[in-house]
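Quick one, T. Sequence first:
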Amino acid sequence: MPSSIVIPKTWLDSYEDFVKNNTSQVSQIESALRSLTYILPGRFNESELASESLHTTINLLSTYHTSLLPPPSHPLPHTRYTSYQRSKSKIYTSSSTLLRTIQYTELLCEMFFKRRGGDKLRWRLIVFLEFIKLVCRALMLRVTGWRTGINPANPEQRASEEETSPSPSETDDDPVAKPYQMPRTHHILSPLPSAHTPIPSFLSTRIVSPDAIRHASLLVRRLTTYRAQAAETLYILRPLIYALAMQRLQGKNRDWRPWILGLAIEVSARQLAKSEIRKLPGGLAGMTAVEREEWKRRGWSVAWWGMRGAFYENVTRYVYITAIRDD
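C-alpha cells:
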C-alpha cells in the first residue's frame, strides 16, 4: 500500500482517543449519568427498568474505559495482582471479563425475565447465571494455581495522577513544590510538599511497604492444604447451591431452609479458611493488603445475609416497616 494513502480513523478509534485524552471529563460524565439512576425510579412507567438499564450501561462503559487507560505509574497491590494474572493467562482474562459482565447485567436480566415469564423463568435464569459464574471462578482458581479468588478480578482504575497531584496554581505559588536542578552537577532533587499538601499524605508516598516490593504473584498466597482448598471450593459453590434451593421452593420466600443452608455453607467456608490462615506465619496480621481486602469483603458478605431470603421476609422487613410507622 502506498505510504501517501491515509487510512481514516473509525468512530471507535476516535472514541478511544477521546477517552484516553480526556480522562477526568469522562469520569465526570459517568458520575453525572449515575446520579440519574437515583432520580428516575418512580418518575414514569417502567422507570425501574430504565434506571437499571442506564446503571448497567454506565458500568459496562466504565469497565471498557478502564481497559483503554494506561496502568498507573504506582499501581495499588490489587491492580498489580490482577494485571499480572491477566497478562499471564488468556483464560483468566476471558473468565474475569465474563464474570464482571454477568455481575453488572444479572439484575437487569432478572427484572426483564420476571416481567416476561414470572418467578419460574427468573429463577431458571438465576441458576444458569450462577452456574456460569461458578465455571469462571473455577477456571480462575485453576489457572492461578489455587489462589484465593479476588473480587473484582479485573484491575480497577484509581484516581488519575492529574487528580492526585497538586494543581499548577499551587505549585507556581510555592517554589519548593517544583523539582530543583543542581547548577553544578545537574542532579534533579525531588520536590518538597507544597503548602496545600498534608504532611501525612506526603510522607505516606515515601514509605515502602512490603507489598510494594513483593512480586505480583506473591500478593495472594497459594492454598496448599486440603482444608484451605475445601474452604475456597465451598465459597464458590455456595451461590449456586442457594439458587438451586430457592428455585425448588418458588413462592415460599419465608421458608428458612435455603437461608440456613446458604449461611451455613458460607460460615463453614470462612471458619475453615480462618483456621488455616492462623497456621501461616503471622496469621491474620501476616496477610497481604490484597488478602486483607478480600477477607474483609467476605466478612461483610456474611453480614448481608440479614438482607436476604427468609431473614429479610420474616425479620428485617418487619423491623423496617415498624420503624417507618413509628416515625
